[in-house]
């Protein structure tokens, strides 16, 4: 399978993930991240996250006590995690929004990773109320998304 070049038109992705409390999750994804909502049920909520469909599914037995971390450019990156590659302007706006929010649960504060190297990127990691790790990143040049040299 060949990686899709970053400059082509991509279709939205879909991701379903577990949460402990739907209303707390709604407040976080809509109020803190600015996501819109779509369909919902007593056990799940669709969120529009920068054009993608992410769905929070209620799992009252969710246990996030044990999380793996992998070293990446001096940071301990949580595994698993998910997120979106934003434009640099979107990333800066989200970083500022999260910095201004008193309750942000930072894993990795906004920074530039791989500075001066292929794949240089702005990145930040946060936790949602259920302990799901989210990464938001951006590139000055999207063609560097899969760069190796």
Automatic annotation (TrEMBL):
PROSITE patterns: VOC. Residues 11-139 form the VOC domain. It comes from the Bacteria. The lineage of its organism: Bacteria, Pseudomonadati, Pseudomonadota, Alphaproteobacteria, Geminicoccales. InterPro entries: Glyas_Bleomycin-R_OHBP_Dase, Glyas_Fos-R_dOase_dom, VOC_core. It comes from Tistrella arctica. This is VOC family protein. Pfam families: Glyoxalase. CDD domains: VOC_like.
